[in-house]
Amino acid sequence: MKDLIMKKFAEVYGDTEGAEAFFSPGRVNLIGEHTDYNGGHVFPCALTIGTYAVARKRKDRKLRFYSMNFENLGVIESSLDDLEFNKQAGWTNYPKGVIWAFGEKGYKVDCGFDMLLNGNIPNGSGLSSSASVEIATGYILSEMYGLDVPNQELAIIGQYSENNFNGVNCGIMDQFAIAMGKKDNAIFLDTSDLSFEYAPIKLDGAKIVISSSNKKRGLGDSKYNERRSECEEALKEIQAGMGINSLGDLNEEQFETVKMAIKDEDRRKRAKHAVYENQRTIKAVNALKNNDIELFGRLMNESHVSLRDDYEVTGIELDTLVEEAWKIDGVIGSRMTGAGFGGCTVSIVKDAAVDAFIDKVGKAYKDKIGYAADFYVVEIGPGPCRL
Ligand code: GLA
Hints:
4-stranded antiparallel β-sheet
């Protein structure tokens, strides 16, 4: 891949003198969905697929961007003096947002760069292609501009740029999973204080399979921000009678005792998901520590049911992928992953069942939805690196 992107860089920008190549992963969340903005736990991991990048510093303040995933757009030019969100600027709003956020956090970026990207995460699939680009940009700035920003700080800057530049109120999970990724490990992260531990994922005789619904979505136009406000409102209603900081502070019993403080029934369901999903995530990680992968799988399934019925972020595409997966012998667990409303599911599938899984789920999906799903058997990889 390095040769390919270097060659393309030379084609686009003339030569490769002073250019360096980098990689930043995508991520999949195994369990703990829509908990990261509720002070709960998440359990994501970085993938070996992601964003490949080449960058070279410039002497002036110009920024030039080229993506091999959007070749028809050609080179998109901007400048350090034009760090404002602009719909027309498309995907370049992600790197621009990060450069802007570096400035806001006191890191000086005083000259521009030429950048070329080539991602092998399906765009808009819910595997965090945007956070991958954000962390790629942050890592490049940190390394090439000698800023030495710790990876955890890159995650915070990435989220800050997405919230404040791109206007998506996302939590910290995606950027954290990518910036802090570790080969063959998932990250058990407590989003209330960013304490975390790595948990080895040893799936003897099983694989992680991602099914992409190919229903495109962007977080900005989904109901993501709406769900987030519903949870905030529910929290306020509970806080009127109880001193908690976030929904993640409650366990199931406590929630059942105070839930009638939430006036609206839909809002009560959203809060229930946030509380139960957080507890499920803690249980799932314990199950994994006890080598009880079957229990881990059952908790994944329960997570999907809660996202479908209480949080209502699945939709017919994701439900079909998951419900068809559940029918197959050798599927340990299956659920939607990421924000929902389209995107992907994640399944743990015994080696011997992988082919049947792809075949049967694929056929049933095409029959019902009318277009094909894509399947990826993925591996857990490290965080961003130089190539
Ligand atoms: C998106 C957001 C994350 C997280 C998930 C849902 O991926 O970027 O912060 O909220 O949705 O778990």
